[in-house]
Design brief:
The complex is a heterodimer of chains A (213) and B (187). Chain A has nine helices and no strands. Chain A is elongated. The mean pLDDT of chain A is 89. Chain B is mostly helical and 187 residues long. Chain B has eight helices and no strands. The N and C termini of chain B lie far apart (37 Å). Classes of the chains: A mainly alpha (213), B mainly alpha (187). The interface between A and B is large, with 31 and 53 residues.
Chain lengths: 213, 187
């Protein structure tokens, strides 16, 4: 085929393109993913006891702020990363700052506590459930984010997949935080932060395959 | 002709094309094909591949530029977007042809002169063969709207599909063609 023929074909009956499709697709993906993860949480654990009375203690608020901050930063990175070219670095810096702040707070909490209390702080309530449920709740958001990203044209697939995994993991963790009683700051660092990073790792591996175009 | 100095003009053509101006869109693709040809020829020459492969990549990139044009951010310059797509297509080509090329430099794109001589080279893309692999709906929609130049309304009347069905089929068909074109050399 001659290139001129191809250009002629592509230009025939050209449709106008509206802006904002990618952003909308990502927002829909986040909403659908969050809804699916919440339904799964309710199906497994039922309505969280706290939701009725409201015992929002410090660590629980911290967990929600950390995870929702990650969702926000990661989603704004994905909006840029779904397009060909270099996305802005600001969201990645924000993600690093969030992790750094949380890890520092966890370190301080450990230093202030008596070493005898450490294992109780780290292996707090339901640490295993945390490690299982956060990736489990992240599956639906990850699938919906990949669906949205495939509408775009990401050019660094591994990095885009990693951040999609991170956002999905953070959403799963936020949903889990509604159910979870809280625990200590080191607990959140290890089991929330760790599970989210695990999701990012899986996302990076899957992204390089699923996002090809 | 240097693509960076042409940026304002090319970007103007792109914006008109996004608003539905077919002439501007064709002019843009024609202009860019010269830049893309030079870019791919330069990189492929280093690994001993010829102009036919370069022309394949030019056409794959043009299809990608067209089917993914909604990913262009109107507030940003056009050139980096075009070369990000070209570079992605090149890396993908190298991966599927199993050539190892440690690094494809990003910053050389605007230093190669445009190559405006497609006359002697045809790509290995055979549109008819590719079209044969589409679903009947998509094939018919592309045949009517993109090759015979019928309006969406006329194509709808002739095929018995609804107008929105035609539009969706054309869109999906072009994306499928893009995928078929890039998978062809994998086989």
């Amino acid at each position: 085929m001659k290139t001129d023929e191809l250009i002629n074909m592509l230009g025939t009956n050209l449709e106008a393109v509206k802006g904002g499709e990618l952003r909308n697709a990502l927002m829909v993906a986040l909403a659908v993913g969050a809804a699916a993860a919440s339904c799964l949480m309710l199906a497994i654990f039922g309505l969280p006891a706290d939701a009725r009375g409201g015992d929002y203690s410090g660590p629980k608020i911290l967990a929600l702020a950390f995870t929702l901050g990650l969702v926000f930063a990661g989603a704004s990175f994905l909006i840029g990363s779904a397009r060909p070219g270099e996305p802005g670095r600001k969201p990645l810096i924000l993600i690093s700052v969030l992790f750094f702040a949380l890890i520092s707070a966890g370190g301080v909490a450990l230093v202030l506590a008596h070493p005898a209390a450490w294992s109780g702080m780290i292996f707090g309530p339901q640490w295993a459930a945390c490690l299982i449920c956060i990736p489990l709740f992240a599956v639906a958001p990850f699938a919906s984010l990949i669906w949205a990203l495939r509408k775009g044209a990401p050019t660094s697939l591994t990095r885009t997949g990693a951040i999609a995994g991170l956002v999905a993991g953070a959403l799963g963790a936020a949903v889990f935080a509604f159910h979870h009683p809280g625990g200590s700051i080191p607990f959140i660092v290890l089991w929330y932060g760790g599970s989210i990073l695990l999701c990012a790792l899986v996302g990076a591996i899957l992204g390089s395959r699923l996002l090809r175009w | 002709m240097n693509i960076r100095s042409d940026e304002p003009e090319l970007r103007g053509l792109m914006l008109s094309g996004l608003d539905g101006d077919a002439a501007a869109h064709k002019a843009l693709l024609t202009r860019l094909s010269a830049n893309l040809r030079a870019y791919f020829k330069t990189h492929l020459a280093r690994i001993g591949k010829g102009p036919a492969d370069a022309e394949d990549l030019v056409q794959e990139s043009l299809i990608a530029l067209h089917t993914r044009r909604h990913t262009y951010d109107r507030s940003k310059p056009l050139t980096p977007w075009v070369y990000a797509i070209a570079r992605y297509r090149l890396v993908d080509f190298l991966r599927r042809t199993r050539t190892s090329m440690t690094d494809v430099a990003i910053d050389e794109a605007d230093q190669v002169p445009a190559d405006d001589d497609p006359s002697s080279v045809e790509s290995g893309l055979d549109l008819e063969k590719l079209m044969a692999q589409l679903t009947p709906k998509a094939r018919q929609a592309i045949q009517f709207v993109k090759l015979e130049g019928l309006s969406v309304g006329e194509a709808a009347a002739r095929s018995g599909m609804s107008e929105s069905d035609i539009k969706v089929s054309v869109h999906r068909g072009l994306k499928a063609l893009s995928l078929l074109a890039t998978q062809r050399s994998r086989a």
